[in-house]
From TrEMBL, chain B:
InterPro entries: Cyt-d_oxidase_su2. This is Cytochrome d ubiquinol oxidase subunit II. GO terms for biological process: aerobic electron transport chain. One of its GO terms (cellular component) is cytochrome complex.
């Protein structure tokens, strides 16, 4: 038999049956269907992944405060958010497991080329993070009566650590695809293979620290907004709720600090992108002609076409002249920014990158405003009586995730046409034998399946909220019996 | 340390073969551990509501951790033999997604039935749980056999026979697990089913060997070898031990016998594959393995973390040992 790394063929019998049955399904190319499928699944999965990452430090905080002060309000918060953490975690695994396999099913050529660089980190993630999370989540959910208080608190810390380690290795992989380092491309049987030459350079590539800090903080902001929104809802229903007043106090301050930090960090991150991925930076500003670039603070499309194809001449913009040049170069307002027309390869889908970036940044400033407003109210009093503020928090509670998802679109769609920057294009990374019909079939299944999953999640979330609301009306909330210090109260 | 991260030689000469061993061990541990869950899910079908709650109390704290072994298997294969990972997953594209769908149904079914106190709702998610628990081991068996036999299509006789064999093995495992996790009439019935499943499994194992012998002439030397004879014998011994121990009420013995059956099965599959890792693509271990630096590094992580993972599982299974009762479980919230 001839040894070969080239991908042979898909299952011929099944493919024949499917192709016979479904010419109607073959309206997307395998590449586009695979990209949409991966993009769609990550859009849903990242909500749960970020929920785990962002909620983890809050759970540790509530648990530690509970053990330290013995106050019932922390126990209540810990229990409430552990329930949501558990549902989110299960949703995260159900939606996440297919993604690892999609590297092989849909992007087989990419997996062959990049296997040596990304297979290791993915296996480290499974060994270090997944195992830790899965095992100690079992303790967190089922082991309350089987372990000591201290060990129970330790379990919550270990699950949190697992969530953060998991994100660490995933972002090692993703940042390597943005700024690949520590490898050498060799040809084996006519297939390019990226061979590992320097693990530290590969793992801690230039993008990695930017991405890790920005992503983890984005997860914290998103979860802070969710907690703040829910706390606002319960405080709005019952001004006297000690439990939810506590949650509100903590989150408005965290929101201000984390979103202000995110803005400052994002500004520097943008400069790094301009240096390492100039075509992405140009797409973020819809900058086609090489030359000085203005920063469009606010862009309003003047016609429908501007939405799908934003350009300087079809947008009504409020811009700061030369600021994009200034930012990209780190201080020179006249610096030349390469336009999209001057790259040797095709542009990414500019509209997605341009608008996603604006949504992310716009929301980011709104979060700073919300945090400042709340912190001011906390300081000057009246936080719990400001109806308008409480309503703003409630309406804003899902917006952190919107900013986080659009941020991912900027990073991932902005990298196109590359799957590994300057090494492999996405078109070359797709599984060669994959048919349009197969890819479209699974895409449709994923769209329907993940929508149902997300619906189920919202339903379960609503039930948890209703249960908490019932506690309010029967007054369990104000049960102020002295708690035994150092003991975690039980259900 | 310098030579561990050497880019010119594997830290141990046979590291590629050892890594192949780790791939198969991960697969084996996964089939064993999730076999408990699949079998439990199939035996679920004839249980009444109280029994179902007891079964789910045994299942609840463990299944998530068990399922992680599938991810571990996938990533260990990916890290060592990326071209094989890419080949077998894209070749069996629809089959892979069918497996994931079955696993998803199983996981959601068990969780969501608790979320709403309505007969129709509970029945619907119970059905998902049972269907997922039955199709997942079948499709996994089909997938593993297609891979190992180098079958370009999963719709062939041998993969389907192996799929059914894995279903029978999962029932044996599920019954053995419930044998130590439950008491009373539920245990008696489940163990009876387990004994029947052992007989069926032995028959299917023999059928698999015959089908392979007839349809894959290139496997005849392996099938006639002494190791294969030893594995057939071991299967018979574990089967008899399994039947004998349950008759005497020694359920831990039955549990170990079932684990023995699963271990022999995966060993058998591994000998059919070795020294190839992807027969359909003509890839041997040496062809497909990653370069020394990459594998050395991954192996160092494995040496450090596999014992820790082993410790986690001993801890988890010890913490949740003994008969499961729904009263102390999380579902009471």
């Amino acid at each position: 038999m001839h040894a070969s790394r080239t991908i042979v063929a898909t299952d011929p019998t099944l493919t024949a049956v499917i192709t016979e049955l479904g010419p109607l399904l073959a309206f997307l190319t395998p590449e586009l269907a695979s990209r949409i499928q991966f993009g769609w699944t990550i859009t849903i999965h990242i909500i749960f992944a970020a929920l785990s990452v962002g909620l983890a430090p809050f759970l540790v905080y509530f648990t530690v405060q509970e053990v330290r002060t013995g106050e019932n309000r922390y126990a209540r918060l810990r229990k409430f958010w552990t329930k949501i953490f558990a549902v989110g975690f299960i949703m995260g695994t159900v939606t996440g497991i297919p993604m690892g396999f999609m590297f092989g099913t849909n992007f087989a050529a990419f997996s062959t080329t990049a296997g040596e660089m990304i297979g290791g980190p993915l296996s480290f993630e499974a060994k270090m993070a997944f195992m830790l999370e899965a095992v100690f989540l079992g303790v967190l959910l089922f082991g309350r009566e089987r372990v000591s208080d201290g060990f129970y608190a330790l379990s919550s810390f270990l699950v949190a650590l697992g969530a953060w380690l998991s994100a660490f290795w995933i972002l090692v992989v993703n940042s390597w695809m943005q700024t690949p380092r520590g490898y050498e491309v060799v040809m084996e049987d006519g297939v390019p293979i990226a061979q590992l030459t320097d693990p530290m350079a590969a793992f801690f590539n230039p993008r990695f620290p930017w991405m890790y800090v920005h992503m983890q903080n984005a997860a914290i902001i998103s979860v802070t907004l969710v907690i703040a929104g829910i706390a606002a809802y319960f405080v709005w229903k019952n001004r006297e709720s000690k439990v939810w007043r506590t949650a509100l106090q903590v989150t408005v301050v965290v929101l201000l600090v984390s979103s202000a930090f995110q803005a400052a960090h994002g500004d520097m991150y943008g400069r790094h992108v301009a240096e390492t991925q100039p075509h992405k930076f140009a797409a973020m500003e819809a900058h086609y002609e090489t030359g000085q670039a203005d920063l469009h603070l606010i862009a309003i499309p003047t016609d429908l076409e501007a939405i799908t194809d934003p350009r300087a001449d079809n947008l009504y913009t409020i811009s700061i002249p030369q600021l994009a040049s200034f930012l990209a170069s780190g201080g020179d307002p006249t610096a030349e920014v390469t336009g999209l027309n001057d790259f040797e390869y095709e542009s990414p889908p500019v509209a997605w990158v341009f608008w996603s970036f604006r949504i992310m940044v716009g929301l980011g400033f709104w979060f700073i405003g919300l945090g400042a407003w709340g912190t001011y109210r906390l300081w000057r009093g009246g936080l719990y009586d400001d109806e308008r503020y409480l309503q703003a928090l409630m309406l804003s509670s899902p917006l952190g995730f919107v900013a986080l998802i659009t941020g991912w679109y900027v990073a991932e769609i902005g990298r196109q046409p590359w799957i590994i920057q300057d090494v492999l294009t996405t078109a070359d990374g797709v599984s060669p034998p994959l048919s349009s019909t197969e890819a479209t079939l699974t895409l449709v299944a994923f769209v329907i399946g993940y929508l149902l999953l997300f619906g189920v999640f919202l339903y379960v979330l609503k039930r948890i909220l209703d249960e908490e609301a019932d506690r309010h009306t029967v007054g369990i909330e104000e049960d102020d019996r002295p708690d035994t210090p150092g003991v975690i109260a039980d259900d | 340390m310098t030579n561990i991260l050497s880019d010119s030689a594997y830290v141990v000469e046979s590291l590629p073969e050892l890594w192949f061993g780790l791939v198969m061990i991960s697969l084996g541990v996964y089939l064993l551990l999730d076999g408990f869950d699949f079998g439990l899910g199939m035996l679920f079908v004839e249980a009444d509501e109280t029994e179902r709650e007891r079964m789910l109390a045994a299942f609840g704290p463990l299944w998530k951790a068990n399922e992680v072994w599938l991810v571990l298997f996938g990533t260990v294969l990916f890290a060592g033999f990326p071209a094989v990972y890419a080949n077998i997953l894209s070749r069996h594209y629809l089959l892979v997604f069918a497996i994931l769908l079955a696993l998803g149904l199983r996981g959601l079914g068990s969780k969501l039935r608790e979320e709403h106190d309505d007969d129709q709702w509970v029945r619907f998610w119970d059905a998902c749980f049972v269907v997922g628990s039955t199709t997942a081991p079948f499709l996994l068996g089909v997938f593993v056999a297609s891979w190992v036999l180098g079958e370009p299509s999963a719709l062939a006789v041998a993969p389907i026979v192996v799929g059914i064999t894995v279903v029978a093995l999962s029932i044996v495992l599920g019954a053995a697990f419930l044998g130590i996790k439950t008491r009373g009439t539920l245990r008696e019935r489940v163990v009876r089913r387990g004994r029947a499943a052992i007989a069926v499994y032995v028959g299917l194992f023999a059928l698999t060997a015959v089908v392979l012998f007839v349809r894959y002439p290139e496997l005849q030397p392996v099938l006639q070898s002494i190791p294969t004879a030893a594995m057939v014998l071991a299967t018979l011994v574990f089967a008899m031990l399994g039947v004998g121990t349950t008759s005497n009420g020694y359920y831990h013995g039955a549990f170990l016998s079932a684990a023995g059956l699963a271990a022999v099965f995966v060993l058998f599959i591994s000998t059919l594959l070795y020294p190839a890792v992807d027969p359909a693509a003509g890839l041997s271990i040496t062809d497909a393995v990653v370069s020394p630096l990459s594998l050395n590094l991954t192996a160092v992580f494995a040496v450090v973390f596999l014992p820790i993972i082993g410790f986690y599982f001993v801890f988890l299974y010890t913490l949740f040992s003994g008969p499961a009762s729904p009263e102390t479980s999380y579902s009471s919230h």
